[in-house]
Amino acid sequence: MSTRFNRRPRAAPNVATTRYLPAAPTLPAWPAVLAVLAALAVPAAPARADSVIYKCVDSAGRVEFTDNRRGPHCKVLDVPGAMSSPQPARRPQAGPPRAAGASAAPAAPSDFPRVDGAEQRARDADRRAILDAELRIEQQKLNELRGEFNNGAPERRGDERNYAKYQDRVATLKDGISRSEKNVEALKREIANIR
Fold this sequence. Notes:
It is a single chain. By secondary structure, this protein is mainly alpha-helical. Helix content is 39%, strand content 6%. It has helices at residues 30-41, 117-149, 163-193, and strands spanning 54-57, 63-66, 74-76. The protein has a 3-stranded antiparallel beta sheet, with no helix packed on it. Strand 1 (54-57) and strand 2 form a beta hairpin. The relative contact order is 0.06.
């Protein structure tokens, strides 16, 4: 027995019924793409922090804020927190020539605040007291580190069953001792520099 399927014969493709895919969109020319990307990459010029802001009022009463002075009707605006342009540095006035062994340090201006001798001695005494206290604390810390270091053979703790942990602690103690010795030397130099 043969089974017969009802098949419709296939029709020849008709141009009117054939569907065509739309053409792929064309890419713009590379120079145009690069120009657009370059334009997007360049940020707008930021406002300068040292620029001066002017408030200008015209004859009609309109107010305009600008960084360009546009005539006598513009006044400098004082904005709190804004940085003004730096003042030009003063040039040293020509004085008598220095002797060969003279100090190169410039003289203080006449309006420079002065501290009398008694107040300066009190400040120096306070500074010495603070440095002495810091030196005592640092020397105490150094002695504790040296005691724990035990000449390179500190006692092993219970959490140091792994020898690598013990070695890490020994290295940390050694670094701490070195740092503390440098701090003690620096504090001694500072104390020696006080008048």
